UniProtKB/TrEMBL annotation:
Keyword Transmembrane part of the UniProt annotation: yes
Coiled coil location: none
Name this polypeptide is given: DUF6534 domain-containing protein
Pfam family, any one: DUF6534
Gene source species: Lentinula raphanica
Length: 314
């Protein structure tokens, strides 16, 4: 009974929690489409809907896995020694989802950065390495794990640890770079915009800490008790945390807009207009105000001011 509690039991809890978080993802996607129907198609369909489809596929795969263990092989504890093909597919969908989210934030860094774009280049290298390693793990899982899960973990433990370490490194790099870029915008922002930048910095730190700490927790759980499936349960939850991080970031534009009653915002989330007349990056928006422009989106651009003090992003 104890072995089932620490293997099948914790795995089932992780998959149930992952299902709950998929419901949160779905709600956030609905809220996004309701609040921002004028966003560009690449953002609405390519990023948001594409992310939801990846999460749907991942959820179906892990639900099949728990069905495999608890129904198809009910009463056969030896089934825990192997992994169904659905788990292998979940691994690759997991990896693509994480890279999807990291690519979004890397693009934001690129829009903030000045040449030679060192941080975005480092982030791209980390993401590409992750993609290669996660593809290898998934392919090997299809071949080996269906025969012996313990042999698979023993053979590829170094690559599992490398993949998770790369993920944590990418998260920390992206989060720290975004915080630094936002802080630079804060030093040049108008006084009325400083509170908004502070809030963006706080959200960036909070979301970066959550994903990084979860990755570190997986490493610790794996190294200390590989036979305990706590690490695998956390692994099931991780992509949902990444997706909710991105969606919360995109949907936060509505909250920022509500907090700035003197702004009339159309479009998406925003950039900061600093004193030099430059906008930080974001999804293109148009803002009308008598003082300054606020935008926090990934598209961004320059800003022009006319004689009536109307500010428009270009």
């Amino acid at each position: 009974m104890t072995s089932l509690n620490t293997t099948l039991g914790v795995l089932e809890i992780g998959i149930l929690l992952s299902g709950v978080l998929f419901g949160v993802v779905t709600s956030q996607v609905y809220i996004y489409h309701k609040n921002f129907p004028k966003d560009s198609l690449w953002l609405q369909i390519g990023l948001i809907d594409g992310l939801w489809l990846l999460e749907l596929g991942h959820t179906i795969c892990i639900c099949h896995a728990i069905y495999f263990y608890t129904v198809t092989n009910y009463g056969h504890s030896e089934a825990l020694r192997v992994a169904p093909i659905s788990l292998a597919l979940a691994v690759i969908l997991h990896g693509i989802t994480v890279i999807f989210v990291q690519a979004y934030f890397t693009y934001r860094i690129y829009r903030f950065s000045h040449k030679p774009y060192l941080i975005p280049i480092i982030s791209i290298i980390l993401m590409f390495t992750q993609l290669v390693s996660i593809t290898t793990l998934s392919a090997e899982a299809i071949i080996v794990a269906q025969t012996s899960l313990s042999f698979y973990l023993e053979k590829w433990q170094w690559l599992v640890m490398t993949t998770i370490s790369l993920r944590v490194a990418a998260d920390l790099t992206i989060s720290s770079s975004l915080v630094y870029s936002l802080y630079q915008q804060r030093t040049n922002a108008y006084e009325s915009t400083v509170l908004i930048v502070d809030q963006l910095i706080r959200w960036t730190i909070e979301t970066g800490v959550v994903t990084s700490m979860l990755g570190i927790a997986i490493v610790i759980a794996y190294l200390t008790a590989k036979e305990n499936y706590t690490w695998l349960a956390l692994f099931m939850v991780l992509p949902k945390v990444f997706s909710n991080t991105l969606l919360a970031n995109v949907n936060s534009r509505a909250h920022l807009r509500n907090n700035q009653s003197n702004f009339e915002v159309s479009g998406s989330s925003g950039l900061i207009l600093n004193r030099s007349g430059t906008l930080a990056t974001g999804l293109a928006v148009t803002v009308h105000t008598q003082m300054e422009t606020f935008d926090d989106s990934p598209g961004g651009g320059n800003c022009s001011v006319n004689s009536t003090d109307k500010y428009d992003s270009v």
